[in-house]
Predict the structure.
Amino acid sequence: MKLASWLKSNGISARDFAARIGTTEATISRLKNARAQPSFELAEKILEATAGAVTPNDFLKRTSSADATPSGDTSGLRVLLIIAGGIAAYKSLDLIRRLRERDTQVRVVITRAGQAFVTPLSVGAIAGTAPYTDLFDPRTEFDVGHIRLARDNDVVVVAPATADLMAKLAHGHADDLATAVLLATNSPVLLAPAMNPQMWAHPATQRNAQRLTDDGAVLVGPNEGEMAEVNEAGVGRMAEVPEILAAVERVAKPFGSKVLAGKHVIITSGPTHEPIDPVRYIANRSSGKQGHAIAQAAARSGARVTLVTGPVDIPDPSGVATIHVESAEDMLEAVTSALPADIAIFAAAVADWRTQKKVAQKMKKQADTKKMKLTLVQNPDILKTVAKGSDRPEFVIGFAAETENVIKAAKAKRRAKGCDWLVANDVGHARGVMGGDVNAVHLVTETGVEDWPEMGKHKVAERLIRRIADHLATDKETA
């Protein structure tokens, strides 16, 4: 759906919509009348504000010429393209050509099924280098080549992404080169699904697509149209090459440009456990998913990342130096030991209280009483200690988990803690933020409050890292 029709159907004026996403009415007017194209940052805001109804693809200039220059700027990026076994694989040859025209480094993996539709010879001729086909190729695997292949990229693109490959990735299979690379990569993953409409609509495929999105993958398409089979039509066509190019830039460019290269970033994540006795502790429902996602996004942006995490049940982010701690006192010691840093992001849900006295043995029920008294004392305030300390990082961001009066409490907390920004969210039990995969946050700065729509925690992380990079770049220009 185009922007103009969406605004009309929802009864929203250009002025109101502009205020909602932080731009001007004139800009929205030009966009809805197709007289301009948005930056990818603005396109992402529009995508979020319209709940996915208006996508960056809607602003692409369509042309009937097969040789038209794509609008996606992928120059300088390193792309690993995985071609799976679907009839849409023929489009991947054009995708390779278009990427190379944009000065993009392209390497290709073809699955065994993919080779039934396009040959390694044709792919190699267009890509300018031989594709990879075998997980156990002795020429490349003598030094674990599939790991190097997985890591040395700005984005991994799967086009076409078949139902079979999506199912394998969603369930962690790694029985060939493509799936092994996808499990081992620390780069963003972009999937372009392509399959029969009934296969796409099947509940299993929809579950897998949702799981992949929750895990941080980005999907472009599928589109609606005629299928290769006679008398078959519906949603299942692979996105067109210009759409995929636009998505590659949107997904990879912020991190491919290494916007935080040379920066040291300290991030805290997860809960803390404050011992009551050897078997009990005070804790909260934090899963660490948001903090870990921020650490991964910061690493992809080129930063050197130190993650200090409390007890969590999720794996350490790849490419990140991770320090595991238990209590708030342990976390403060680990953070101060990791200083100096350029940026510090305190996403951990640190317990405010701990027991005054540590008990060496298990506290047992007493026969003569039904009550047990615990004397609690305040834990150290890690955010405040660092933000107001002598070794303060250039930029300090805190998190506020609130259940009422979220904005008011966040504004007061930002001033009291001495941090530059504060990310606030409502963690009431009904919202399912703690332990869940989505988040809706408010970014509180010295100049105001940005209300971000609900999105996956990986998306929150990427958007936060981009905002930090943009802010630091602006400060540098005005200095």
User: Anything to note?
Assistant: The longest strand covers residues 395-402. The chain has a mean pLDDT of 82.
